[in-house]
């Protein structure tokens, strides 16, 4: 009779490979320069603990770190060229391909039936959602995803090339007190602020519109810098990019109908302001 062995499974390494690789390169350049972690940290204005974390791939290098390392270690642009990939790895893996496409889009049209979209979320609202994730996320992962989500909001004010953004949000989203009344009041104010930007349109789909073609789920429609239309669909941490011309065309027609059925920009702004006012007065959101 043969004997069986119990094999212990190695603990899962959740460090993004690009962080680990970047850290190894920094350590190599540092040692070649004859610097200890403490000396290197002092030269670039970081703590030795932070340098150690980057070298071990436990935390991502931010732009200031990379710029300081390039100067101090004479890295010749090696670290600079990795920075975009290091930043991208802060996002969930399923979202990273879309984020690359989104970063170079010239227009972005979205329908969100459940939550305020990430590009319009306040820090407190976003943190509440990340804390509610299940299975629970590690504190480090929450902080990295929060930082990455807020950094994406630079798209709202990007000028080269300019980006046109349209958001259709279900009215029910505005009545869901994510994080409590104070967080939601701030969120509604920020939503109104973003909607006032010249390149941003925020429309609310009223609950009174009992049935419409968006009820199949959320969608994001993009036009790339080379004028190629794409669609992104996300649900339960699974994201799909649709590029088939006929399918994409149907989504654009569907979205055009949604825009005509939603409240106009001014009506939407008034509704958002009224709901924020209700929260300021301590009332339940009116319907």
TrEMBL record:
Domain HTH cro/C1-type: 26-59
InterPro entries, per database record: Cro/C1-type_HTH (IPR001387), DUF5753 (IPR043917), Lambda_DNA-bd_dom_sf (IPR010982)
SUPFAM superfamilies hit by this protein: lambda repressor-like DNA-binding domains (SSF47413)
Protein name as annotated: Helix-turn-helix transcriptional regulator
Source species of the chain: Streptomyces zingiberis
Phylogenetic lineage: Bacteria, Bacillati, Actinomycetota, Actinomycetes, Kitasatosporales
């Amino acid at each position: 009779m043969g004997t069986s062995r119990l094999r212990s499974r190695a603990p899962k390494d959740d460090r993004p490979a690009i962080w680990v690789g970047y850290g190894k390169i920094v350590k190599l350049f540092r040692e070649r320069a004859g610097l200890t972690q403490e000396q290197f940290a002092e030269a670039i204005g970081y703590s030795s603990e932070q340098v150690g974390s980057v070298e071990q791939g436990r935390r991502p290098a931010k732009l200031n770190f990379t710029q300081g390392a390039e100067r101090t270690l004479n890295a010749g642009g090696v670290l600079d060229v990795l920075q975009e990939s290091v930043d991208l790895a802060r996002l969930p893996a399923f979202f990273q391909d879309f984020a690359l496409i989104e970063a170079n889009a010239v227009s972005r049209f979205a329908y969100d039936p459940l939550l305020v979209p990430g590009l319009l979320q306040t820090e407190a609202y976003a943190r509440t959602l990340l804390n509610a994730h299940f299975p629970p996320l590690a504190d480090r992962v929450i902080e990295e995803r929060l930082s990455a989500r807020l950094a994406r909001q630079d798209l709202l004010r990007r000028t080269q090339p300019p980006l046109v953004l349209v958001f259709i949000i279900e009215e029910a989203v505005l009545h869901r007190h994510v994080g409590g009344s104070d967080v939601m009041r701030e969120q509604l104010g920020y939503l109104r602020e973003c909607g006032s930007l010249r390149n941003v349109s925020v429309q609310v789909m009223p609950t009174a519109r009992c049935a419409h073609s968006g009820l199949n789920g959320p969608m994001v429609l993009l036009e790339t810098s080379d004028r190629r239309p794409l669609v992104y669909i996300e649900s339960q941490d699974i994201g799909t990019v649709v590029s088939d011309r006929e399918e994409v065309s149907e989504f654009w027609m569907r979205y055009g109908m949604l825009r005509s059925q939603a409240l106009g920009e001014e009506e939407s702004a008034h509704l958002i302001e009224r709901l924020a006012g209700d929260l300021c007065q301590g009332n339940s959101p009116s319907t």
